[in-house]
Every structure is written in structure tokens, then in C-alpha cells.
Amino acid sequence: MQINKQETQPTRAFSNYKEMCSYARVATSRILKLGRLLYDSQKHKYYTVLGYDSWKEFLNDSDIGYAESTVRSFIRIYKLYVLKLAVPNELLAEIGHSKLQVIAPVVESDPDWWLELARKMSKNNLIKEVKGEE
């Protein structure tokens, strides 16, 4: 039996897309968990218990593997959306880390509206919307 590429390609493309979306949500969930752990470590200075003299030295550990600016972003997202706004993790995972970063400067003005906009819009259109607000 010969497989028709034209018939299977849309099915594979859709399956591929759905799998990517699933992994993107998982990645955002893990970023939120990592943000919480990094926040706790910084706040309670857990890194000193582990023998590091400074936060910066701790972040330079090869097992951490993130630049300080990336860590700041993870912590900022965690503090803003989880601690301050108490947004459910499922919604945050659906929106995605990069779009959460985009709306961070304006989200507190109307959290429900901005979160819904971020959920529905592409990142590029969301950037335009935020720039119009600022």
C-alpha cells in the first residue's frame, strides 16, 4: 500500500503543532517553578548554606546554567503573576513566558483584561497593544 503524502501531511502537521503547544505549556510551568525556587533561594539566602559567597557566584554554578538577567526575569514573572496577582498556573502556562514578559509593565492596570488579551493575541500584536498603552 502506497502512502499519499498529501493526505498525511496535514495530519502530521497538526499533530506536530499540538505536541509543540503541549511542550510550550510544560516549559512555562517549569519556568514558574524554577522562578519560585530561585526566589526562595535568593530571599532566604539558601545559596550561602550551600557554600556560595554571593548570589552572583551561585548563579555562575555550571549546574544552574542561566544568565543573571534570565534569572531576574524568572523571578519577576513568579513574583508578579503568582505572588502578587495570584493568577492560576494553568492560565500562565497557556499564555507563555514570553507574552507574560510583554504585558508585565501594564498588567496591573487591569489584570483580567491584559491576561485575556495575552491569551488570545500573538506576541507581535500584544507588543503593539502594550506600546499603545504606555
Tell me what the structure shows:
With 134 residues, the chain is mainly α. Helix content is 75%, strand content 0%. It has 8 helices and no strands. It has helices at residues 5-43, 46-49, 55-59, 68-84, 89-95, 97-103, 111-120, 123-133. Helix 1 packs across helix 5 (89-95) and helix 5 (89-95) packs across helix 7 (111-120). The chain is globular. The protein starts with a helix and ends with a helix.
Rounded to the nearest angstrom, the distance between the terminal CA atoms is 60 Å
Number of strands: 0
Q: What portion of the residues fall into strands of 2 or more residues?
A: under 5%
Structural class: mainly alpha
Task: Give the averaged pLDDT, no decimals.
Answer: 91
What percent of residues adopt helix (DSSP H or I)?
Answer: over 70%
Principal-axes geometry comes out as globular
How do the SSEs run, as a string of H and E?
A: HHHHHHHH
**Largest sheet entry:** none
Number of domains: 1
Query: Which residues form runs of ≥5 with pLDDT under 50?
Result: none
What is the gyration radius calculated from CA atoms?
19 Å
Number of helical runs?
A: 8
Sequence-ordered SSE layout with sheet pairings:
Blueprint: H1 5-43, H2 46-49, H3 55-59, H4 68-84, H5 89-95, H6 97-103, H7 111-120, H8 123-133
Helix pairs in contact: 1-4, 1-5, 5-7, 6-8
Quick summary of this structure?
The protein has about 130 residues and is an all-alpha fold. About 75% of the residues lie in helices and about 0% in strands. Helix 1 packs across helix 4, helix 1 crosses helix 5 and helix 5 packs across helix 7.
